[in-house]
Specification:
There is one protein chain. This protein has a single domain (about 30-310), classed as monomeric porin ompg (Porin), CATH 2.40.160.40. It has about 300 residues and is mainly β. A hairpin with a 3-residue loop joins strand 5 and strand 6 (about 165-175). The protein has a 12-stranded antiparallel barrel with strand order 1-2-3-5-6-7-8-9-10-11-12-13. It has 2 helices and 13 strands. It has helices at about 1-15, 30-40; strands at about 90-100, 110-120, 125-140, 145, 150-160, 165-175, 190-200, 205-215, 225-235, 245-255, 265-280, 280-290, 300-310.
Length: about 300
């Protein structure tokens, strides 16, 4: 009787939908992984998301489509802010413009750019930044010179990701498609480590460290150490449009030359900013960057952008 009872319990446990072992994850080919990440439904079922571990960096997530992660345990969503490091993956496009007052002590600078984030898998993403116009005065004739900017292509790899914390490694590759009149026209590699942390309730802390390493040497292209730290709090729920996911944050950026080709004085700036969900996955973003060290690249820079999550 004991043997029969044991067999019956084993059968019941195996048949139970709650206690039965979960089926193995679906296997994807490389092309299927890329297609699902770029064009699939990555938002409707957050339960498909899986954490990524450091131990599985080279074996886990590369052949699994990217799925938009759920909010942190405190309720903070994973979203991007202007003038701050990301630390997370997105699938979206954003376009906007900037106005820098008293740029290099000679008039103003006007610029426009768009950015696309394209995930190829749960581990790998590419960011594309295209500054389609940059205009400022040049001392040679004290007139405005308007050109295309320097394109940046940035491969990114998620190192780890959990509900409350993620970190990634990115290498921005700057292509000299712009002009030196606007401070562009040089190539550089910028490796960065970035993080995102839902520290408490809907409070988010993000930032990272990195280096900007130009290929060429001149007074415009210095080897720079970069540091970013941003803190913000989400005040409203996602569906309270046009003020959904309303966040106020302050982003701090430090740039310090680390070569011997000139002054090594750092540049420290603070950028108070906002982001809000307008509806239908459209967002508005704004930030004002204010340098606090001298010499100042500008008095202040206002950036406004509109973003679409797709």
């Amino acid at each position: 009787m004991r043997i029969v009872a044991a067999i019956m319990v084993a059968i019941a446990l195996t048949a139970s939908p709650v206690l039965a072992q979960a089926p193995p994850p679906k296997s994807y080919s490389f092309l299927d992984t890329v297609r699902e990440s770029l064009f699939g439904d990555v938002y409707s079922d957050p339960s498909r998301w899986r954490p990524l571990t450091l131990e599985g960096l080279f074996t886990e997530g590369w052949n699994r489509p990217w799925v938009s992660p759920p909010a942190g345990e405190g309720g903070a969503p994973r979203q991007g802010w202007l003038n701050s490091f990301d630390g997370v993956f997105y699938r979206l496009a954003v376009g906007g413009g900037s106005f820098a007052h008293n740029f290099n002590d000679n008039g103003n600078q006007y610029s426009g750019a768009f950015t696309v984030y394209a995930p190829f898998s749960a581990r790998f993403e590419v960011r594309l930044d295209v500054p389609f116009i940059v205009s400022n005065k040049v001392e040679s004739d004290n007139d405005y010179h308007t050109h295309f900017g320097d394109i940046q292509i940035t491969p990114e790899v998620l190192i780890t990701e959990s509900r409350n914390f993620s970190q990634l490694f990115a290498v921005a590759m700057r292509i000299p498609t712009g002009d030196k009149d606007n401070g562009n026209g040089f190539a550089a590699m910028t490796p960065t480590w970035q993080f995102w942390w839902n520290a408490w309730s809907k409070l988010v802390v993000r930032g990272g460290l990195g280096f900007q390493l130009p290929y060429t040497e001149s007074d415009r292209t210095r080897n720079n150490f970069l540091a970013n730290l941003a803190v913000g709090y989400y005040f409203t729920p996602h569906d309270l449009t046009p003020f959904g996911d309303f966040v106020f944050y302050v982003s701090t950026n430090l740039t310090k030359p680390v070569d011997d080709r000139g002054s090594n004085d750092p540049t420290l700036s603070f950028s108070p900013g906002i982001r809000t969900h307008l509806g239908a996955n459209w967002y508005f973003l704004g930030a004002v960057e204010v340098p606090t060290t001298t010499p100042k690249p500008f008095d202040y820079q206002l950036t406004l952008a509109v973003m679409k999550v797709y």
